[in-house]
């Protein structure tokens, strides 16, 4: 692992403070991460369900954390593709959690997947795959 939980958490707070709106880092391992978002009224869409963009944001930041666990603190690693399938309605006013795993990390790109769960429900509410572009070393600082 190229970065500790504490280092990544500090990096996210310092370099990506808007990321807190998408969830908080709970666990980190070599090529995987888990985040949680406390759902409130601002995260709901009409019909009383968590909005798609909220789940996509949580999924994206969770894969970013999993990627950085493999490559280190590279701020300019960016999402180039995100596919998401919404599988079932999440519980309103219940935290959602995401579990991301990197499937492949190369020199110039990383591919990961993430499952999003509504707390207390065993089946995922969404599944996403995404690709990140990793900048050349000369642009990594």
UniProtKB/TrEMBL annotation:
Q: Which InterPro entries match?
A: PAAI_dom, Thioestr_dom
Ranges for the Thioesterase domain? 47-122
Pfam families tied to this protein: 4HBT (PF03061)
Question: What is the protein's name according to its record?
Answer: PaaI family thioesterase
């Amino acid at each position: 692992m190229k970065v500790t939980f504490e280092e990544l958490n500090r990096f996210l707070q310092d370099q990506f403070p808007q990321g807190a709106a998408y969830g908080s880092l709970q666990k980190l391992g070599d090529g995987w991460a888990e985040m949680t978002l406390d759902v409130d009224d601002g995260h709901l869409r009409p019909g009383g369900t968590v909005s798609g963009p909220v789940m996509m944001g949580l999924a994206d930041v969770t894969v970013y954390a999993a990627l950085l666990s493999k490559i280190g603190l590279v701020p300019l690693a960016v999402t180039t593709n995100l596919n998401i399938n919404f599988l079932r309605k999440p519980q309103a006013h219940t935290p959602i959690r995401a579990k991301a795993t990197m499937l492949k990390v190369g020199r110039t790109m990383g591919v990961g997947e993430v499952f999003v769960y509504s707390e207390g429900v065993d089946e995922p509410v969404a599944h996403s795959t995404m690709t990140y572009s990793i900048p050349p070393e000369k642009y990594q600082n």
